[in-house]
Amino acid sequence: MVSGCTTLLICFAKSALGVVDSHRWVGPLIACCIGYVLSDLASGIYHWGIDNYGSAKTLVFGNQIDAFQHHHKHPWIITKSQFAKNHRILAGGVTFIVLPINLLCKDPTILAFIGAFSGCIMFSQQFHTWAHGTKNKLPKIVLALQDVGILVSRSQHVAHHRLPYNNNYCLVSGLWNNFLDGYKVFELLERIFFFIFGAQPRSWSGLDLEWTEEIETQSLCDSQY
């Protein structure tokens, strides 16, 4: 976790120094906004992938696939997990990918994009955790950011944990959910994958009986909103 945060700080610091030297801040600011928007799309694609394909034995991604399947059975446990535990895998990925970019790149606009994109991805698990929190336990600033759509809202993410369990995958802001679900983008990708590779997504298998308890649990939690 420390390595990921340090890597992000270096990225933003180099970008800020570049802005000071060049006196050009519009490009990096726009790049940050684009990075934020695209991070939501990336989080949705990744979430869809590990929700629907692979197993605990899958190379590289196995632990996360297993963790997300466990999360679907016991979703509120995420609110009780330690911050570092929730973020260590993504922080490691950010360090591995972004650190070399920090060493090689001097363009403040590129660094601003990379910093915003990778930062939102790294902390997407925290945004996800807040989306499972009850209103009376969340900081007011978080509630405000959820209400205006900057962070994925609790009401939007709850839909992901209800039948048919195949929508609202995005975990940063949820901005892309309406587009991806409305145009059935993931359904199209699933059909393409099945046609080419013969791989059937978990979303086609119907209701997992181990998830039925969550429907009742969510109803109780919703009453606290």
UniProtKB/TrEMBL annotation:
It is found in: Membrane. It is a multi-pass membrane protein. GO terms for cellular component: membrane. Residues 1-18 form the signal peptide. Keywords: Membrane, Signal, Transmembrane, Transmembrane helix. Residues 36-204 form the Lipid desaturase domain. Pfam families: Lipid_desat (PF10520). InterPro entries: Chloroplast_FAD_CarF (IPR052864), Lipid_desat (IPR019547). The keyword Transmembrane applies. Belongs to the fatty acid desaturase CarF family. This is Lipid desaturase domain-containing protein. It comes from Solanum verrucosum.
